[in-house]
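Example for tutorial group B:
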């Protein structure tokens, strides 16, 4: 038992690696942990409580019909951040603009949270894994002044921390502060996250490709040619690769991170700029995969280096094992 380490103990032991004020930053991570527990509890009741299954009568800023659990997760994380006192505001995929907190503590707070509160929520009704993606930034506007869009549009390289929670056969919280990527598995019997995956590393190569091939006809030529490469027989490179696509970004990313693989959501005729959100999905996952020695790009440019001008800006994403991403980029650059 002496070797078992809880998330709280890990945070306390590694405060020296946290950017900015150690105690405040640890407090933000602790509030994320609390919100994850609350959302996890509701997700696990999805087959029992009908009030949390299905869609609402509203759409989010993306024009997507909101699921009831989308709204619940969004409210849960925002509430946890509001009452934390060390977070000045939150930008969420579910809301048109950022939420600025009006408490006296929040007006003096250094940190900001951006998030996709419940990725893959449409899969809830069929008992498929979902997740939360988040990142933490330091505000750049003067303390005490109103927040601005520029506080949230600092770019991927300005992230202080990023992480995700996957609600699946077990619930895991995975995060980085730029000093490695670490995973914690939730024990529901006692309500504690335990360190289960220290210093996670993405295999340099893999045999899994994840893409929605139903959109194949709308993909750029370079993506089509790479997919054909994935399906060719070549024993030395374990091809044909295995196709695995869940439709929950966090779940697909998590599997490929552990087993080795590549996830692709390219531009298409339907989504000429890509579909995934740069701030809430692409930046955080790119930060994490790089901490695990993987790679993330839009097909030609490193995701972390892409500029951002809007809260809900979209981008294509190619992410996973380094050798697989490099090979995909070769096709995409030739046939861009």
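The residue assignment follows.
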């Amino acid at each position: 038992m002496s070797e078992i380490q809880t998330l709280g103990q890990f945070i306390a032991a590694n405060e020296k690696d946290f950017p900015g004020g150690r105690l405040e930053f640890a407090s933000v991570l602790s509030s994320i942990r609390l919100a994850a527990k609350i959302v996890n509890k509701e997700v696990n009741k999805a087959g029992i409580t009908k009030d949390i299954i299905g869609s609402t009568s509203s759409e989010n800023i993306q024009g997507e019909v909101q699921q009831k659990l989308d709204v619940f997760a969004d409210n849960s994380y925002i509430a946890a951040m509001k009452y934390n006192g060390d977070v000045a505001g939150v930008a969420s995929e579910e809301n048109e603009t950022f939420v600025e907190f009006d408490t006296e503590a929040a007006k003096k707070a250094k940190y900001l949270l951006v998030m996709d509160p419940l990725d893959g929520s449409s899969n809830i009704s069929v008992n498929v894994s979902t997740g939360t993606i988040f990142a933490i930034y330091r505000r750049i506007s003067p303390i005490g002044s109103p927040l601005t869009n520029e506080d949230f549009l600092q770019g991927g390289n300005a992230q202080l921390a990023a992480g995700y929670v996957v609600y699946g056969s077990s619930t895991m919280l995975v995060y980085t502060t730029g000093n490695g990527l670490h995973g914690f598995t939730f024990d529901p019997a006692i309500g504690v996250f335990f360190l289960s995956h220290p210093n996670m590393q993405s295999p340099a190569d893999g045999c899994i490709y994840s893409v929605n091939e139903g959109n194949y006809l709308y993909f750029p030529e370079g993506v089509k040619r790479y997919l054909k490469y994935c399906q060719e027989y070549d024993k030395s490179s374990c091809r044909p690769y295995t196709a695995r696509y869940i439709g929950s970004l966090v779940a697909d990313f998590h599997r490929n991170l552990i087993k080795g693989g590549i996830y692709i959501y390219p531009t298409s005729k339907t989504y000429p700029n890509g579909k995934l959100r740069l701030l809430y999905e692409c930046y955080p996952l790119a930060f994490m995969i790089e901490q695990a020695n993987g790679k993330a790009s839009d097909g030609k440019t490193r995701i972390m280096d892409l500029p951002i001008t809007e809260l809900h800006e979209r981008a294509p994403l190619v992410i996973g094992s380094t050798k697989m991403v490099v090979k995909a980029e070769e096709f995409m650059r030739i046939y861009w």
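The first helix runs from residue 7 to 13. Compare this with the pattern of hydrophobic and polar residues in the output above.
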